[in-house]
Amino acid sequence: MKTFSRLSVPYLVWLFMMVLAPMLLIAFYAITDSGNGIINFTFTLKHFAKFFTDRDFLLILWRSLVIAVKTTVICTVIGYPVAYFIAGSSDKVRNALILAITIPMWINMLVRTYAWIGILSDGGPLQRLLEMLGFGSPELMYTEGAVLLGMVYNFIPFMILQINTSLCKMDKSLIEASADLGADKLQTFLRVVFPLSLPGVVSGISLVFLPAVSSFFIPKLLGGGQFFLIGNVIENQFITVGEWNFGSAISMIMAAVMMCSMYLVRRLDLKTEGKVSKARTLPGGRLAS
Questions:
Q1: Total structural domains in the chain?
Q2: Where are the alpha helices (DSSP H) in 40-134?
Q3: Residue 6 phi/psi, 5° resolution?
Q4: pLDDT tens-digit map of 199-231
Q5: To pair with 120 at 20 to 30 A between CA atoms, which of 3, 59, 245, 286?
Q6: Above 90 in pLDDT, residue 158?
């Protein structure tokens, strides 16, 4: 026990320096005021009031949540069939497909996003392809579609890998038992496979939604100034405007939003555990043992 306690000391020190101390500093800036570059040790909530009483900031927060939800839904709709196909492949094919999905993640996310600028720009390969197909020359850059494309491209591997892990861990004897009891493929998927994969779906939703709602460089590069999300507001307050107190207050608000999201995801995860246990009840009312 003493050895375990000693080994945990470096981790606890790192946790305090890299996680707890910055959060405490942000909270301190959020509830204090500054004057002439000096922090006044006076408690104030005016920075929070400024955010919630300004219609523009609330619209930006709403837009960020909508973009994050759209990204999560698209990643789920596309990622589940891909993960299902990978899980059903042979070991050799599965390893090759997982490698193909993870290789782009070895490259910095900023570099990958910059690559989309060349693809979506005027006269780029995607616009030329659309012209060849008879769609004219649509504007691709600095649109909501470009931002969603960048979000989905960067975050969909997390969804695929989480769902694939759940599907691969699934007890295959349950599927065999379902077939033996007379269930067709659709019934087996709806009553056995899908409920057992829900924990992976929930984990994927968490890993996609949380970074999507706070992302700032993807909308900045692919959306230009037309899609100013909450992450861009925080960056602007710290780097451009120099309003560290207001930027810290927005950061605390977003931290609260993320904690609420994690709580809801956890509640959903607990519900899926109940569905997983029910998934062992196969067609005909019999249990798979």
A1: 1
A2: 46-53, 55-87, 91-102, 109-120, 125-132
A3: -65, -40
A4: 899 889 989 998 999 888 899 889 876 778 898
A5: 59
A6: yes
Residue 185 inside a domain? The answer is yes
pLDDT of residue 287: 42
* Cβ–Cβ under 8 Å, residues 252 and 27: yes
Structure tokens, 255: 């931290």
Alpha-carbon gap, residue 2 to 268, rounded angstroms: 38
Q: Give me the pLDDT at residue 286, please.
A: 47
- CA dist., res. 174 & res. 21, Å (int): 48
Torsion of CA 49, 229, 21, 258, to 10 degrees: 80
Q: Which two tokens stand for residue 177?
A: 């038992």
Return the CATH number at 179. 1.10.3720.10
- Residue 72 located in a structural domain: yes
Q: Which has the closest alpha carbon to 163: 198, 192, 188?
A: 198
Under the banding of pLDDT at 50, 70 and 90, the label for residue 136 is: confident
